[in-house]
């Protein structure tokens, strides 16, 4: 099966250039994420799991772009006149170790990013039943991704990435990734929106969780648009898929950092709201009123996601502002 679209050597130059630009943005956002996780926090209060994920995404993005730069140097300089077919032949040879390495890094980045979104769903919904289907889809992504990388490692020098069965495994992997991202992000945004809507009747201020919902959907849309375009190019056997795959690695990191930085911006406004009318406290102190049932709205930020815990207790209204470190 022959490929179409731009030549492979031009596609490699374009993909490396665009990936470098996006990597630069991801570095800036990674620094912002580090600030968001550590600003005014003691070391023991820093959210270690989410910090590890942020560092891993950054390291994988760095490793991927290093491999791409070395691969470009090999194809365009080192083996330009000695490799059969020249640069086009080099970049079309999927048996190269650099080719298998970059796709293994892409697989790790994808599984890590999708796993974080699924975990966020679990934190917000607080039930394992909601994440059963996304988890099964994620496991399917693991199987198809590993199978695709296995076939790449075992491919012959004449193999083409679009040919069966390798092309089928890659298609299945991208489709499962798209569905997992859509479903997990949709469940996450819907849950936050429902809780925010239900708490609007007892909210004493105009503060809302909708900015976080919007940034969640923006991050999901950015990632999904990249994946859908990649799938279309791959099904059309277009070399543009190479450009989009390389771009997807820093985009996944950027989408993750977007959410954490947005939460950091709004975290100072986190507070609980109650239905206690003003002026009632002094009357209660004088014994004119007895404690009554109040709705306590507590905003909890865990692992970079937002969730409300809404309950009712027979006690006066209280206000709890969590540490900004607990994200």
How would you describe what is shown here?
- By secondary structure, the protein is mainly α.
- The protein is 65% helix and 6% strand.
- The chain has helices spanning 8-38, 48-78, 86-92, 97-125, 132-154, 166-199, 210-235, 240-266, 280-285; strands at 293-302, 305-314.
- The protein has a two-stranded antiparallel sheet.
- A hairpin with a 2-residue loop joins β1 and β2 (305-314).
- Residues 271-324 have low confidence and may be disordered.
Q: How do the strands and helices of this protein lay out in sequence?
A:
Layout: H1 8-38, H2 48-78, H3 86-92, H4 97-125, H5 132-154, H6 166-199, H7 210-235, H8 240-266, H9 280-285, E1 293-302, E2 305-314
Antiparallel strand pairs: 1-2
Helix pairs in contact: 1-2, 1-8, 2-4, 2-8, 4-5, 4-6, 4-8, 5-6, 6-7, 7-8
Determine the N-to-C terminus distance.
49 Å
Order of helices and strands: HHHHHHHHHEE
What is the topology, as strand order, of the major beta sheet? Answer: 1-2
Number of strands: 2
β-sheet strand percentage: 5-15%
Radius of gyration over alpha carbons? Answer: 24 Å
**Helix fraction?**
55-70%
Structural class, by secondary structure, is: mainly alpha
Stretches where pLDDT is under 50 for at least 5 consecutive residues are 271-324
Question: Which descriptor suits the 3D outline?
Answer: globular
Task: Report mean pLDDT, rounded to a whole number.
Answer: 79
Q: How would you sum up the major sheet? A: 2 strands, antiparallel
Q: Given the structure, what is the number of helices? A: 9
């Amino acid at each position: 099966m022959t490929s179409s679209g731009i030549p492979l050597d031009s596609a490699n130059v374009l993909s490396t250039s665009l990936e470098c630009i996006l990597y630069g943005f991801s570095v800036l956002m990674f620094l912002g994420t580090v600030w968001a996780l550590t600003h005014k926090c003691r070391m023991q209060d820093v959210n270690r799991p989410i910090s590890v994920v942020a560092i891993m995404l950054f390291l994988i993005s760095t490793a991927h772009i290093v491999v791409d730069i070395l691969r470009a140097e090999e194809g365009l300089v080192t083996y330009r006149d000695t490799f059969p077919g020249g640069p086009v032949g080099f970049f079309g040879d999927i048996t190269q170790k650099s080719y298998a390495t970059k796709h293994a890094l892409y697989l790790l980045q994808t599984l890590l990013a999708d796993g974080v979104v699924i975990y966020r769903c679990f934190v917000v919904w607080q039930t394992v039943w909601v994440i059963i289907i996304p988890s099964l889809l994620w496991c399917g992504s693991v199987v198809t991704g590993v199978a695709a990388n296995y076939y790449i490692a075992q491919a012959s020098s004449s193999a083409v990435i679009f040919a069966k069965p390798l092309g089928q495994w890659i298609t299945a992997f991208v489709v499962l990734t798209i569905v997992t991202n859509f479903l997990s992000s949709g469940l996450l945004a819907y849950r936050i929106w429902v809780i925010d809507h239900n708490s609007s009747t007892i909210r004493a201020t105009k503060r809302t969780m909708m900015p976080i919902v919007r940034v969640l959907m923006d991050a999901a849309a950015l990632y999904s648009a990249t994946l859908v375009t990649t799938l279309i190019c791959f099904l059309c056997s277009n070399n543009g898929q190479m450009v989009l795959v390389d771009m997807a690695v820093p985009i996944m990191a950027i989408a993750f950092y977007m959410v954490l930085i947005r939460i950091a911006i709004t975290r100072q406004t986190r507070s609980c709201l109650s239905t206690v009318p003003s002026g009632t406290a002094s009357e209660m102190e004088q014994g004119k009123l007895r404690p009554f049932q109040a709705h306590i709205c507590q905003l909890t930020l865990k692992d970079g996601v937002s969730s409300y815990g809404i309950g009712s207790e027979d006690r006066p209204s209280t206000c709890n502002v969590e540490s900004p470190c607990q994200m």
